[in-house]
Amino acid sequence: MEANPKFRLLPMPTHSLLLLVVWLLLNNSLALGHLLLGAFLAIGIPLLVAPLQLAQPSGKKPLVAIRQVLLVMGDIIKANLEVALLVIGPLSRMQPGFVAVPLSIERELPITLLASTISLTPGTVSCELSEDRRFLYVHVLNLVDEQELVATIKQRYEAPLKEIFGC
């Protein structure tokens, strides 16, 4: 009987090590019982969840990713200031609304990163992904121009993700 090449005792060694360390830290003990139970959990849990893993695209352009992280951080700071000024002012200035952003990316990881980026930026929240995965619905605290917002999301956030993941 030939061994299955996909089966490994430690399918996620980093996760296993992290599980063991966290278990020992939570119990604040290096007793033999805690070491054995921690090792059992550190081996067993990754073995149980390994079949649930989905293959994800890897980043192909790390410099673009770094540039994107810095851009998002700047956008978060800028949006914090804009939302603070908006909230301090009269509520009648706010024009909340929902926008359907058409997606040109299809993989789970880039869509998740796009939705997370939008939600991290104050004043916008990703609400739902359409069943056909062609639209991301976004709630905006102050919707002035829907087309401009969609264009900004696609240009500033989606396009770099497409470049990073080669979508």
Report on the structure:
By secondary structure, this protein is mainly α. It folds into two domains: 13-52; 62-165, no CATH class. It is 56% helix and 11% strand. It is built from five helices and three strands. It has helices at residues 13-27, 32-49, 62-88, 108-120, 146-165, and strands at 97-102, 124-129, 135-140. Strands 1-3-2 form a three-stranded antiparallel β-sheet. Helix 1 packs antiparallel against helix 2. The longest helix has 27 residues, at 62-88. The protein is elongated, with a radius of gyration of 22 Å. It starts with 12 loop residues before the first helix and ends with a helix. Mean pLDDT is 90; it is low at 1-5.
Describe the biggest sheet? 3 strands, antiparallel
**Overall pLDDT score:** 90
H-E string: HHHEHEEH
Tell me the overall shape: elongated
Rg (C-alpha, Å): 22 Å
Kindly give the count of domains. 2
What order do the strands of the largest sheet run in, or round the barrel if closed?
A: 1-3-2
Instruction: Kindly state the percentage of residues in helix.
Output: 55-70%
Strand tally is 3
Tally the helices: 5
Structural class: mainly alpha
